[in-house]
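Hi Y.,

Following your request, here is the sequence exactly as I used it, all 289 residues.
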Amino acid sequence: MDEPVSEGAAALPHPALRPFVAHYAGYRERGVAPALHRGLPSPHLTMILTLDDPLDMAAHPDPAQPGARFDALVGGLHTAPATIRHDGRQSGVQVALTPFGARALLGLPAGELAMRDLDVDAVVGRAGAGDLLDAVRGPRTWAARFAALDAALLRRLAAGPRDPLPPRQVRHAWRLLQASGGRTDVAALAAAVGWTPRHLAHRFGLDVGLSPKQAARVVRFDRVRRALQAGAAGGAGAPRLADAAVAHGYYDQPHLDREFRALAGCAPSVWLAEELRNVQVPHPGDPAG
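Below is the corresponding structure, written out as tokens. Let me know if you'd prefer a different format.
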């Protein structure tokens, strides 16, 4: 029987990568209880590079996509949860890509990955996927893995498009959405960047993968669930959901409950109970928590 292991690490990428990569997170668990984990919507695309065992996706954000196992997975922004299964062993490095990292590092716009989970080799080719997997599987320490991954992604950045960023209006609108915690009205967002709401929605679909309204929902949801998670991790127990709802721009607790059920597949009280049981365990798809 495996000796129990539970470890995790996180790091910021090389400064040249930060417009495209938000953070790295490594995790390794062995000899723990088998479990299912919810991969929740967030403002980041997800790339997971496994270390020891394939990633077992029991369900994807698109329910029409059958479950599968991946050595390396990339998933776009989504508005429904995924389900990740493990049998007591899981390990890997997660790369949290900004929406603009898709074109710069993977060679395609984020819109082509929305609501999809794909093998990395189907996106960047077998050699490209192999280079990324070698970067995390060769070194023996987390710091060395993150440094090797920096080098691999910098090579991809150098070989990619000369101007990988979307129009400045898209970048500005995305910054405004994040700065407001997802509370900016779409019409006001369009006015702020000098575009019509229709044109902004078109460009967001291409360069982000969600409409501005969907992106605002995901940003707001991500903020509130991280606040709830931080409260649980701090040992204070389950925070008051009504207070969290108001603090993050929901009308009231029933509004928060509806959004949680839509985006997480369960009520916030159910999700919090799961987090309180597993608060010290880093999970693929949710390294920052």
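The two ends are 28 Å apart (CA to CA).

Thanks again,
Q.
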